[in-house]
Design a protein that fits this description.
The protein is mainly β. The protein has 7 helices and 42 strands. A 7-stranded antiparallel beta sheet has the order 10-9-8-3-12-1-14, with no helix packed on it. The N terminus is likely disordered. This is Neuronal pentraxin-1.
């Protein structure tokens, strides 16, 4: 196997140096391509460097704030593909660990693992992506391209005397490797700064512009140790910052006419910026784009064509700025502007020709996406896309089957479609604003039209669902009983009162749940449809008990994103019926040995809307809690009866021992005193 060895000149970083450490042009970064081998243990492919050795002369103290950035290009994902691991000892083997994975995205800092549920869908294979991890005394921040998440908590400073490993996880310091943890793809640009970079600096990094601050460790100054006995590490030159690479900006001409500020607001909603050219090459690209579509973009107020850019120009003071008023000094406005006008908004026409026009004019405009943007059309019925994609010109009609009064009636109506750049984990508001799906139906308005809090049902029932029949027979059920009070013993009627909570857990595979939060959520349906739920009576009660019921569901699993929120299969998410019961219970009191008597009483709960063998009680069913000391009795035991097969009854057994001292003081002693006094 051919091993390509790269000799890198190491520049010693001195903490007191006045000039920035060597930071080569990102377009010149070496790119390492890594492939996993077939071996185990220490033979897997990885790159390692000891910060203690690399920074030995600088000897920096632990960093209270820091930023660690790099670029990666994943070609495949294994079960636990690890992009970067930083350890300081065998015990502190997960000081920093980054695992960007389309199935599960995790970040570990100081051994504390965090799963980021909204990030897996942002991981794109075979595409350069930038990742930055920032730490400060109040928490850490992760940037994946322009997607940001923040964790607030007091965190420890970062010691810089450990080992950085690219392409593997460290189970011990620089060791303990397995193939399943290997990263497969390309890596470049790892840089460490001894401070938390600002948003503007991070956006510069995304554009392959090195932030204007002194880095502590720079990619081109690192001597890596390559471990690739069975895998492969090769060196490439084409990286994210090459011409046409990931950092090269893309431009889109919008031919729908808008005023300049209106266009800026619209673009911001869909994840674009109104374009502010960075250099002459971008101006040339924008000019060609506008020129190719000139028949769509006439100027109207004069001959010619053009489109809004995000620029303002004062011809009297020769000062240019963006629409936010920030100075733009790198463009030669005076050379390009073709008219003298009190108007300040800049229009790109052909070549180097710019015109100043009134910003309220309705015109084409040019935008540039912030990162990767995909427009998605949602809402098409599955029937339309089963045979072929409905591209081209078609007549559209929506049909919906409804069952009313046992007759099938066919209705035609309006089909709601959404077109936006919102990702699968986001909800599209009416104005195309994107909000997190997890914020839909969370009792807070996130859309300006409040549409994210409309239609917040939690149970979606299929056509023909029958609420009078259990989901299956016998139905596996877990029963949990909490006995709260046992009072009002009446020896004449041989009754007493029991207050308890009965919880029954089961699965209904016919139901699809939606809009579930972290806690239990009440089950609601469209059009007051009903879900099957157990109806319970107390069999050995002389009077109907007082009962209050609530049906809820507990989210389990991550769910599947849909246009209206996350959905969860009923076969994986438990329904729970909570019944608060107050019942008078019959008990055959045996008083022969009164007041030293023991009583065995029971409470029989019967589920009436299943057959006698309709329930299969889980062996974990039981009594969660029960009072132990009553006014007249001690509760010796409180348990559920064990059913050997399918049943429809749940029996609570109570073994009571009379408190004879209570009766001595309340009955016998007062009677004896009366006799003595008499």
């Amino acid at each position: 196997m051919l091993l390509v060895v790269v000799v890198v000149v190491v520049v010693v970083l001195v903490a007191s140096m006045d000039t920035p450490a060597h930071a080569a042009d990102p377009a010149q970064w070496a790119v390492f391509k890594m492939e996993a081998g077939d071996g185990d243990g220490d033979t897997d492919t990885r790159l390692t460097v000891s910060l203690k050795e690399s920074l030995s002369h600088a000897a920096p103290a632990p960093l209270a704030s820091f930023t660690l950035c790099m670029w990666y290009y994943a070609t495949a994902f294994l079960d636990a593909s690890t992009l970067l691991s930083y350890a300081t000892s065998n015990q502190m083997d997960d000081v920093i660990r980054l695992r960007p994975n389309p199935d599960e995205f995790t970040v570990t800092y100081m051994q504390d693992i965090h799963r980021l549920p909204d990030f897996p869908s942002l991981v794109v294979p075979e595409r350069w992506q930038s990742i930055c991890f920032l730490g400060d005394p109040e928490g850490w921040t992760l940037w994946l391209e322009e997607n940001v998440t923040r964790y607030e908590a007091a965190i420890s400073p970062l010691a810089v005397d450990g080992v950085v490993v690219l392409g593997q996880e460290q189970d011990i310091l620089d060791g303990g490797y397995t193939k399943d943890q290997s990263f497969q793809g390309k890596l470049t640009g790892l840089t460490l700064w001894p401070l938390a970079l600002s948003t503007a600096q991070l956006l510069n990094w995304l554009s392959c512009i090195m932030p204007d601050t002194v880095p502590l460790l720079v990619w081109d100054d690192i001597t890596w140790t390559a471990h690739n006995k069975t895998g492969d590490i090769t060196v490439h030159e084409e990286g994210p910052c090459d011409e046409g690479g990931a950092a090269a900006r893309k431009f889109l001409l919008f031919t729908s006419k808008m005023a300049a500020l209106e266009a800026k607001q619209f673009l911001n909603i869909i994840g674009f910026d109104i374009v502010v050219p960075r250099d002459d090459k971008e101006i040339e690209t924008i000019s060609e784009l506008v020129g190719e579509n000139q028949h769509h973009c006439p100027l109207k107020v004069k001959d010619g064509f053009g489109a809004w850019m995000g620029l303002l120009y004062n011809s009297q003071s020769d000062e240019g700025s963006n629409l936010a008023g920030e100075r733009v000094d790198w463009l030669n406005f005076k050379k390009r502007v073709r008219n003298i006008s009190p108007n300040r908004n800049v229009v790109q026409s052909s070549g180097d020709d710019w015109f100043l026009l009134k910003g309220g004019l309705q015109m084409c405009f040019v935008g540039t996406p912030r990162g990767r943007r995909v427009f998605r059309l949602r809402g098409l019925p599955p029937k339309l896309t089963e045979d072929k994609l409905p591209v081209g010109r078609h007549k559209w009609m929506a049909e919906q089957q409804e069952q009313e009064q046992q007759q099938q009636q066919q209705h035609t109506g309006v089909m709601k479609l959404s077109l936006s750049t919102c990702a699968d984990h986001q909800y599209t508001c009416s104005d195309a604003t994107c909000v997190q799906l997890s914020k839909v139906c969370d009792f807070e308005f996130d859309c300006s039209d409040q549409s994210d809090e409309v239609g917040c049902t939690t149970a979606l029932l299929p056509q023909g669902y029958l609420h009078s029949y259990p989901p299956s027979v016998p139905l596996p059920v877990l029963a949990a009983v909490t006995v709260k009070r046992i009072v009002n013993f009446d020896l004449l009627s041989m009754t007493f009162q029991v207050n308890l909570d009965l919880k029954l857990y089961w699965m209904d595979s016919w139901i699809t749940f939606s809009n579930l939060g972290e806690d239990y959520k009440k089950v609601t349906t469209d059009d007051d449809k009903q879900v099957w739920r157990p109806e319970v009576i107390v069999q050995n009660s002389p009077t109907p008990p007082y009962t209050v019921s609530e049906l809820s569901v507990k989210r389990q699993g991550r769910g599947r994103p849909t246009e209206r929120g996350y959905t969860f299969p009923g076969a994986e998410n438990q329904l729970v019926e909570t019944k608060t019961i107050k019942a008078i219970v019959n008990c055959d009191f045996r008083l022969r040995w009164y007041p030293w008597d023991d009583q065995l009483c029971f409470l029989t709960l019967v589920v009436t809307n299943v057959r006698e063998s309709g329930l299969l009680l889980n062996q974990s069913s039981g009594v969660l809690s029960c009072p132990t000391l009553l006014e007249e009795y001690k509760v010796a035991s409180c348990a559920l009866g064990k059913e050997e097969g399918p049943t429809n009854t749940i029996t609570v057994y109570l073994k009571l021992s009379r408190r004879y001292e209570y009766h001595l003081f309340t009955t016998f002693l007062p009677t004896s005193l009366l006799l003595i006094l008499g």
